[in-house]
Amino acid sequence: MNNNKEYSDIGADLNLDKIEKLNDLLNEHIQKSIGNSKFNIFSSYLSGIDKVKNTLIESDVSRQGYVFIGRPVLNLRSSSLRQDRILALIDTISSNTVAFYIRCMLDPIFSNKIEISNIIEHSNLLNNQLPFIPLLTNTIKTMSGWPDPVLNTESTEGGFFSENFTFAKGFDDLRKSVTLTLNFRDIQGSPVLSLFTIWFRFIHLVTRGIVLAYNKYIEERKMCYSCSIYRFVLDTSGKYIKYWGKATGSFPLSYPIGGYLNYDVTSPISNFGNDISIPFMVNAPEMMDPIILNDFNMWIKRFCPYIENYEVLTQDEQIYNNFKGIPFINISSGSNELEWRIDPEEKTQDPYSSISYILDSIKGVKTKS
Fold first, then answer.
1. pTM across the whole model
2. Is residue 318 included in any domain, yes or no?
């Protein structure tokens, strides 16, 4: 009876808040003992052995992120284009045509000429501050072929009982050519196929000496028709870069025009453009080297020198500023956050704020916040 009275006295002293705190402490103690606590699960996995084998911890998941395919520097001046009937199809300065877009995307020197700056400025298709081809970033579906680093080994000659010893000899640092396969979903008008047609045709003609590269690339013995492909995998928040790679010295090996010309009477509608495959030769695949992130920022700054003075879009602002902004990596903080920066004059404001301002200004009506 005395014990019951003692327990009832304790219960009388407990209010609802105290009971909830006691319950939380009890659950915390139980979860800690089996390694299931959210606040120590990571350290438990790194410092001890899971003997229960039912500990709940998430597998590593990521967002697909982005593929940025750089602009080559083809010599697409009129004197060069007129050497070939196919290249001559883009010999235009009509600002809002796909032909002009392709010409400028594949020849940044031409697109930065002072003589056509006014035409570029009034084009609805071009953003000359981007060092990559946004059409390809927006239409790419899959990319495969990145190599895994593999150590080379050597084994000693077998002894009397065929015993031997194997030791590591390092690896090739991926200093070799590989082929990446990129698949795209072309859109109405076939701009993706048209772009690769011109790119491929120029490579063929410049290697045969029919057209010439810009003098700088001839003197420096550089492949003007190659580009860099940057691959960024993001964390689940879509803000931070987890894995990264760079395919240096890349160029297309073919384009699938033959597939478009095939015929099948049972399929009156051809949707071949829904999945076009472009193999890229890569001369130097690089992965997880921190210098790649710095290279990307330097690459951006060459085309947009004032990028560091631009405003950084929040994730909410990115929604109503879709198709706007320039990517830039926050390296200085150590977070590797992929920021989207924008000129404040080009920024679209919060639609609700804009509507509220209009209502307040015109009708004198204050909306609820």
1. 0.83
2. yes
Same-domain pairing of 289 and 324: no
Per-residue pLDDT tens digits for 114-169: 899 999 998 999 999 999 999 999 999 999 999 999 999 998 888 888 888 888 99
- Report how far residue 366's alpha carbon sits from residue 121's, in angstroms, rounded to the nearest whole number: 39
Cα–Cα–Cα angle for 232, 120, 78, rounded to 5 degrees: 100
Q: Do 77 and 214 reside in the same domain of the chain?
A: yes
Q: Are residues 119 and 43 in the same domain?
A: no
With beta carbons less than 8 A apart as the criterion, state whether 49 and 43 touch: no
Taking residue 33's Cβ as centre, other Cβ atoms within 10 Å add up to: 10
pLDDT, tens digit (0-9, with 9 covering 90-100), for 70-97: 999 999 999 999 999 999 999 999 999 9
Rg (CA), the chain: 30
Helix residue ranges per DSSP H, the chain: 2-13, 16-34, 41-47, 78-81, 98-106, 108-111, 117-121, 134-139, 191-207, 215-219, 257-261, 291-303, 315-319, 351-358
Q: Looking at the domain assignment, is residue 9 inside a domain?
A: no
Cα distance between residue 116 and residue 129, in whole Å: 15
Sole residue written with tokens 């700056």: 117
